[in-house]
Amino acid sequence: MLQIYNTLTRQKEYFRPIHEGYVGIYVCGPTVYGDAHLGHARPAITFDILYRYLQYLGYKVRYVRNITDVGHLEHDADEGEDKIAKKARIEQLEPMEVVQYYTNRYHHDMEALNVLPPSIEPHASGHIMEQIDFIQKILDQGYAYISDGSVYMDVEKYAKDFHYGILSGRNLNDIVTDTRELDGQNEKKHSYDFALWKKAAPEHIMHWHSPWSEGFPGWHMECSAMGCKYLGEQFDIHGGGMDLMFPHHEAEIAQSCAALGHQTVKYWMHNNMITIAGKKMGKSYNNFITLQQFFNGEHELLSKPFSPMTIRFFILMAHYRSTVDFSSEALEAAEKGLSRLKEAYSRLMTLKPAEKTNIELFDLKEKCNEAMDDDLNTPIVISNLFESAKAINTIYDGKATISSEDLDKLQSTWKTFVVDILGLIMDDTAGSTSNNNAYKGAVNLLLTIRQRAKQNKDWATSDEIRNALTQMGFTIKDKKDGFEWSL
Fold first, then answer.
1. CB atoms closer than 10 angstroms to residue 383
2. 62-96 pLDDT, tens per residue?
3. Domain over 3-271 is classified CATH 2.40.70.10
4. Nearest partner of 224 among 191, 271, 192, 265, judged by Cα
5. Nearest-angstrom CA–CA distance, 13 and 444
6. Which fold has domain 291-421?
7. Is 325 exposed, middle or buried (0-12, 13-18, 19+ CB in 10 A)?
């Protein structure tokens, strides 16, 4: 039975859905004012694995991943310019042009990483009325106040009735100490009060009408409002990066308790950070590498381009709650590991059954199920697959045999966990079937010409073809009955 680590209770818990009909998941998506980087890829892949595995277990899943296209200010607090509005002003575009452009690019990157699209992908700008209604509920309950057209959460009053800091483990004294003084915060009662609605300055180009002012919702409000709209006042899982635990997710809990009198989320899940030299990778640190730069190799920290599947495999090699330190060398190691996995998969799918199995095979399906049930332990799944690959290679080399029944089970298990759950594309030429066939046909034709050249003792032509393909990244193995290649 699936166990997941609940950040709220700080322990692993058996997953028991709230509703019989479906599992509700809400994951914080990107703020679309720039290209996605490796830090964006990790939560996308982490919760893609959760989404896939819950479906494998037989659950109907409603997966909501939002798009933040308003209200995310430069300081991630209550001051500064809206990041999308700033981008639009600099590039002389409409804000929604910026949003659409980077949303399209984000979708392209997610498709390349084989991240399944969510069931629902709501935009904050498309749910202004829901956010206004949610804010009014908090005001009606007395946990917010209006100041010069803006609405702020009264954290001190809230903390008297609820536990502020329940998710992050912080107390109000710590928050007071850590809160930065920003310009314009004199309209708040306390520096740690956060905005539910901000009155727009005259030059602010993204604003809507509300009972309090022409303005825009605070960053934290969108997830509370949209989570309730699409998943109800109580739902199963809320996920995101660990950097969102405070203040974003802590503020969400406060908003929900203030408006509804109870928490909305049963299980909180957070993936850990990707770091460079021990420092978090992110736009705020100006040390990020975009996914497109990984794919084309155009960054000073990259030794070469890396495929989307190498990036996905690199992330899955570590448990989602552990820190991953990036280096080009680590990616090269992941690339080699993925190549070995692909080779074993390809060999497995071409094996011919014998009358009986004369090699010891452990129950791969059971081992992989146990690993996934243990808080989505993908590194152990990968380790089990590599252990299984030893037997596959032995059979492929003709040193052992496997029965039809065992072969069918092994092939099915590999496809389920490698392709369906881990989401790894085993064909290097991802794209249309016709393109794949043409690609394979071209390589096979070259190697057939090389084989004929060898038979005719035309060693110059044979070596030229082999050397050229090797430089392109192909591995070629000559066999008694032909050849074998992989990329």
1. 15
2. 999 999 998 787 655 577 778 888 888 888 888 89
3. no
4. 265
5. 51
6. Isoleucyl-tRNA Synthetase; Domain 1 (1.10.730)
7. middle
